[in-house]
Each structure stands twice: as C-alpha cells, then as structure tokens.
Amino acid sequence: MEVLVVANxxxxxSVDLARYYMKKRSIPASHLLVVSLTTDxxxxxxxxxxxxxxxxxxxxxxxxxxxxxxxxxxxxxxPLKVAPPLPDLQAxxxxxxxxxAQAVLEENDSTAEVQADQKKNEILEKIITLLNTxxxxxxxxxxxxxxxxxxxxxxxxxxxxxxxxQGKEAIVTKDQVLLVSRLDGPDVKTVRRLIDDTLWAxxxxxxxxxxxxxxxxxxxxxxxxxxxxxxxxxxxKAAKDVExxxxxxxxxxxxxxxxxxxxxxxxxxxxxxxxxYIDSFDWQRGAVGFHIASSECSTLRGTESSGWxxxxxxxxxxATIGPVxxxxxQGFPVPHVFFGELLEGYMSLGESYLVSLPYISWQMVLVGDxxxxxxxxx
Length: 378
Description:
378 residues; alpha/beta; 4-stranded parallel beta sheet; 15 strands
C-alpha cells in the first residue's frame, strides 16, 4: 500500500508528526506533501479546490512514475470539513425571503398543523438547496475522489469498494478512488500516542474484550431490514463474528453501557448517545471502536466537546470513525463488515473501512493509521 502523507505548515507540530509517522512506517521522504492551509477545522470550497486538490494531484503526478499511491494520510492540522460553495447574491436574497416566511409560520398558530408542518419542511428544503448544504463534506471523504476531475457535489456517491455494491453500476470506478484517513486528535501528544499504540499493538497483538451496544434483540426476519434496524442487526452479527477472536459482551437493551462497566475494552461499536460520550470503557492499548450517531467527528480539537470521536481519542483508542455532519445511518460503515474484515486478519484498518463504507464524497472520517493490522490471519 503506497502512501502519500499530507501535513499543514500553518499548524505547529503537523510536519514533525508527519515525519515521525513516516519514519516509523518506512515511508519515503518524497511521499510527504507539505501545504499551507487554514488552521480552522473547516476550509472553504475554494481553498479545498485551489490549494489542497491541486497540491495533492501535483504530488500524485510527480510520484506516479515510481509509486502507485493508493492511500492518503492527513496529519494533525489538516482541516476536517469542506464548507459548501458560497451561494450567489440571488440565492442569498431568496434565502432571506424564505426565512421571513419561516418566521411568519412560527408566529402564527394554525389549526391545520399538518399543512403548516408540510409548508415548513418545504421551505427548509428550499433553503438547504439554495445554501448548497448538501455539498458540504468531510475533507477526507471528498479527497478520496481527488483524481476525478468533475462529479456532482450534491449528496453522496456510491463507493465502488463497498461489498454491498459489488456487481452494481457505479458513477466512479475503483481505480479512481483513494483510501483516505487521518492521524489527528486534540493535540500533538495524543496523535503521537496513537501512532505508538498502533505499532505496539501490531507487535504484541490487540488483546481484550469486544463490546457491542445494540438496542434491540436479534430479529427473527432479516431480509427486509433497513435503516436503524439493519445497523442494529449488524451489531448482533458483528458480536457473533468477533467471538472467534475474543470475549464479547453484547448489550441488547435500550440503555447504554453504564460508566466504568467495560474493562479491558479492545473493540467497541454501539449507538445512540448523541454528542455525549459515556465514560464506560477502560481502553486497551491499540483499541478500535466507533459510535453510531450524527456529527460525532464535527471537531477533534474543541475542548468543550463531548463528542465520541474526540473523547475516545482522549481516553485512549488508537482508531475511531465518525461523521462531521449528519450522515444518515446508512452513511456509516456497516459494523459486521468492518469488524469482520479487521478481525479476520487479512485486511488493514484502512482496507476494512473502505470495503464497509457505502458512500464517499460525504461525511465520514477514519481517524487512525490505515496500515494498522492488529490481528494476524487465523
């Protein structure tokens, strides 16, 4: 797996961390791309297109004679989110008109509540369209299509690597898609610890228990499942698959794992505590896990945030996954595919993520070393 590492010169520690990681992974110095980017976690679409995309493509072209880059690792300091393109003046004026109409509907009590709600939803959809809201994305997810010259920014694009889409028509092909992850967190110390823990766990093997937090019991019929019920079933299936490797604790109740109730946690997946991390886990070195809820990776630096990605990194995991905005549940990696492949031992963290992720040019972020392989084949 040939890797391009991207660091931000404007963020203190970003370049040093990149070099530290590359030395540990024996990645050639020529595979480091240093770019001057905003220090905010959100970058404008213009900066993304004119600076980051052009710089990455230039590096890919420069390296293509000696290496076939398949993976990009974004370092601490590279922005997390791409803002939608700015609307033009006419669109902004229309938005103000719709917001005035929204205010009128809120002020007026209506006996026709269903009609009023329908009107509010219609106005909201028009505002979302005018503001290009569906064109915002995670930098990582958007950058997976850096080699594609032109594609629709509105909404998501099917990932041709996802196991559920094999044999189906796709807008982009596998050779156009790159695996993108990031080594990131609240500070330099955390990111360095993440790198060290990954290498330690690869050498020693990831040991501990797996915790899966479903909300319902295993359904008797599975063919017609969708949405939350499908992902809840996937947690049950993941728990069963992971039993081949380690002790598993499966919670089938609507309540979440209580605080300090999960010792020796090496693997975790569950839902649904929105932006409210619950300190249930004693994380093992090299632990991997994610929580299924909206916007859990909206920040990796906000000290006041209680989002799951940030808190899990602070508390000791080596890898986690989360969305920067609302992804809808089907935007998450499918748990039993992700953990099944990871624990089978043939795929790395990054490869397991890529084949379990339904959509790209969307909201999801993988925080962790894509080369991380905590298990060897059985």
